[in-house]
Write a structure and sequence with these properties.
alpha/beta, single chain, globular, 3-stranded antiparallel β-sheet
């Protein structure tokens, strides 16, 4: 089966983000999801109450066993929590996963404000994981933390994406949902590759006014990883993932009392 995605991320007990959102998105897009759980969280739509980290060697063991038996056509990372976890994930990827594009969603802070990445792990994320990534998908607060820049406009997003690209990933999709305005702009920048020039593309859509924003970043990154695993080129994979995400937001079930979850099952497979 083409379309195997190994997801390395944290579990969300509320089911709206993390591993749960990742698996739902990958399945809805007719791909196969396997997991290496990096942390357990006790959370709901109101926020994260507690985080229980998984030992790094056990995370690595999960990855090794999946890659040795099932394999992966793409690998997606989400919440990795610590420098030790990032190092272990990078080590296993270098040894067993190099043939699969790596999508890095640099999860740092939950929607409710809880810190999900230790401050000392930011250096490991920049120096260890980003240089191996086919795509990194930060939101504006994450990009500000990684670059040290203030991002208050689309032009600032473009400059920040360029700085992130200089850290080694092959592409950066900087998501603009945190900027105010009726239009949401995401900035994609790609590095030059053999036979292809680097470039920039803007994705623009009308803002969807909703409180169903829990798990949007996880969902988008996993949907893109599913597309790459299915041999879609990067821009078509992003375009399909963005359409899927927006429909999942529009069809949200209205659950919970905080940042509500999406409706990942809004569509009949295959989604195109």
């Amino acid at each position: 089966m083409k379309g195997r995605v190994l997801i390395v991320a944290g579990s969300d007990s509320g089911g709206g983000a993390g591993i749960q959102a990742d698996l739902k998105a990958v399945t809805a897009l007719d791909a196969y999801g396997a997991t290496a759980i990096a942390a357990l969280t006790a959370q709901n739509t109101r926020g994260v109450a507690a985080v229980f980290p998984i030992p790094p060697d056990f995370i690595g063991r999960q990855m090794e066993l999946v890659l040795d038996d099932i394999g992966a056509d793409a690998i997606k990372t989400g919440m990795l929590h610590s420098a030790e976890v990032i190092e272990e994930v990078a080590r296993v990827y270098e040894r067993l996963g190099r043939g699969a594009p790596l999508v890095v969603d640099p999860v740092m802070v939950a929607k409710g404000g809880a810190r999900l990445l230790e401050p000392q792990a930011e250096g490991a994320l920049r120096g260890r994981l980003l240089p191996m990534a086919a795509l990194v998908t930060p939101n504006i607060p994450e990009a500000e933390a990684l670059t040290g820049m203030v991002i208050d406009s689309v032009d600032a997003m473009r400059r920040a994406a360029a700085r992130l690209l200089s850290m080694g990933p092959r592409a950066v999709l900087l998501k603009g949902g945190h900027l105010p305005g009726a239009t949401v702009v995401d900035v994609l920048q790609t590095a030059p590759a053999p036979g292809a020039a680097g470039g920039e593309q803007l994705f623009e859509d009308a803002r969807i006014e909703t409180r169903a924003t829990h798990g949007t970043g996880c969902t988008l990154a996993s949907a893109i990883a599913a597309g790459l695993a299915q041999d879609l080129a990067l821009v078509p994979a992003i375009s399909r993932a963005r359409r899927y995400l927006r429909e999942a937001m529009r069809a949200a079930p209205g659950l919970g009392h905080g940042h509500g979850p999406l409706n990942h099952a809004h569509t009949v497979r295959p989604f195109s």
